[in-house]
UniProtKB/TrEMBL annotation:
Its EC number is 6.3.5.2. It comes from the Bacteria. Transmembrane segments: none annotated. Catalyzes the synthesis of GMP from XMP. The keyword Ligase applies. GO terms for cellular component: cytosol. Homodimer. This is GMP synthase [glutamine-hydrolyzing]. Residues 2-200 form the GMPS ATP-PPase domain. The keyword Ligase applies.
Length: 326
């Protein structure tokens, strides 16, 4: 019987068998897949799982709290948070090229993750036990894609920041490797994960860094985070979440245009809205968001985000555009 409850039970049993009385770690990204994988393993082995969350400072408003409070509250999982925002900002300073950003973020992510793992290993070493298992939220389409070679790979490098540290030796635990995304969501609901996590739209591992066209700075991140939150709030309030696959909000940090606000001339940055509809992110169409909703978003962003004086809408399908601007 293919109910979410049966699948969850079967997967929990399978994980118990695989890990036995061993120890495991899992990197949480804030996304659905790693959260559901971790929740399953938590059910199977309890506190012998340690979750590691690297806060690279490139997350959207509220995402860190979602992991620290909502995920932990729902699962009771043991969580280690690494505060790496300063390091990431330092390493990214002066960098505008999208591929260099991705490389730096990938590298720093692995460093931070390894640091946290060494600490966990250190903790357990006193008790004389080794961490042998690494939990990953690999889905069936990921398995097929990495084995198959679809021919469209490598347009953008490093699509998944949760990459495996190369010199650490773990056995992989991949409880979701036979599931599709909607099945993963159903299992997540079955395990009691909150809707904000289970229904979350895709968000890239390198986060807001690849939504700032130009150099990433703390100030620019703060601007973009505000604009992104406004867009998310208004699209949700309008009931559009299920029609929209994701809506990147992009800051054109190196562009300024003249505007007028109050009785003064402004010279500020544009924010781009990029709402897309898609089945699998391989192709996408721009979403026809009602004008009234766009109007509210535009008004709020220009009123509430300092130094932004224009909001523009991206009307490009994929292809020829990609979903992200970088
Ligand atoms: P593009 O921009 O290539 O995006 O049309 C397709 C999907 O992939 C996401 N994306 C990324 N995800 N690391 C990720 O984890 C990345 O570097 C990355 N680049 C794009 C994008 O959000 C969309 O869902």
């Amino acid at each position: 019987d293919w109910t979410a409850a049966n699948i969850a039970d079967a997967l929990i049993d399978q994980v118990s068998d695989q890990i036995g009385d061993g120890l495991a770690i899992c990197g949480l990204s804030g996304g659905v897949d790693s959260a559901v994988a971790a929740a399953l393993v938590q059910r199977a082995i309890g506190d012998r799982l340690t979750c590691v969350f690297v806060d690279h400072g490139l997350l959207r408003a509220g995402e860190r709290e979602q992991v620290q409070h909502d995920f932990v509250g729902a699962t009771g999982a043991k969580l280690v948070t690494v505060d790496a925002a300063d390091t990431f900002l330092r390493e990214l300073s002066g960098v505008s090229d999208p591929e260099r950003k991705r490389k730096i973020i990938g590298r720093e992510f692995i460093r931070s993750f390894e640091g946290a793992v060494s600490e966990v290993l250190g903790d357990h070493a006193e008790g004389g036990q080794q961490v042998d298992y690494l939990v990953q939220g690999t889905l069936y389409p990921d398995v097929v894609e990495s084995g198959g070679g679809s021919g469209t790979a490598n347009i953008k490098s490093h699509h998944n920041v949760g990459g495996l540290p190369e010199d650490l030796e773990f056995s992989l635990v991949e409880p979701l490797r036979l599931l599709f995304k909607d099945e993963v969501r159903a299992v997540g609901r079955e395990l009691g994960l909150p809707e904000e996590i289970v229904a979350r739209q895709p968000f890239p591992g390198p986060g807001l860094a690849i939504r700032i066209v130009g150099e990433v700075t703390a100030e620019r991140l703060a601007m973009l985070r505000k604009a992104d939150l406004i867009a998310r709030e208004e699209l949700s309030a309008a009931g559009l979440d299920s029609q929209i696959w994701q809506c990147p909000v992009v800051l054109l940090a190196d562009v300024r245009s003249v505007g007028v606000q109050g009785d003064g001339r402004t010279y500020g940055h544009p924010i781009v809205l990029r709402p897309v509809s898609s089945e699998d992110a391989m192709t996408a169409d721009w979403t026809r968001v009602p004008y009234e909703v766009l109007e509210i978003i535009s008004t709020r962003i220009t009123n509430e985000v300092p130094d932004v004086n224009r909001v523009v809408l991206d009307l490009t399908s994929k292809p020829p555009g990609t979903i992200e601007w970088e």
